[in-house]
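G., the chain you wanted modeled:
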Amino acid sequence: MSEDIQKEPVRRRKPEPLIDDSDDQGLVNRKEPPYPAMAMAAGVLWIIFGSLAGLSLAMIVLSAFIAAANRGARVGVEAASDLSCPATISFLIAVVFICMGIQSVRGMVGDRLRYGLGSIFFAFLPFLMLIYSASRGEFIEAGIEGLIVAILLAAGILALAGRSQYKLWRKARSAHNPFRK
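Predicted structure as tokens:
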């Protein structure tokens, strides 16, 4: 009996063809495209601007309270009440730009058009302040305002220039994983 088994040729099984499911095709083989550099740069600039705005707000509030403490309690309450509205607006602007930057860096923004145009729009007021400061000979203030204008304009231009690449990245990313938007 053992001789019969040895004489028979060994039959090998053919490998089964791989199942080609169109839903799963490409999820394993393709890699997610890299995040666009212009989108990352715009997000980082927005985070930097928001952080600088928050830091300058903290410095203004701190100096107002120090000056008020040197003059007396009654003057301190008046100084704090005069500072409350601009401080609140500055705080909200800082928070908005930090959130814009974080959302942009993480790729959570659907379309970057509003962020880019908003950044360019917000650069207009510091630009006017730059012109006013330079005309009065306050070159340190003009330099700071120039830096603010440069950051906001650069972020806005980068966001608008990299908009098409960002849209393609979002489309490719959602094609790789149907649970991402």
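The chain has one domain: 38-176.

Shout if anything looks off.
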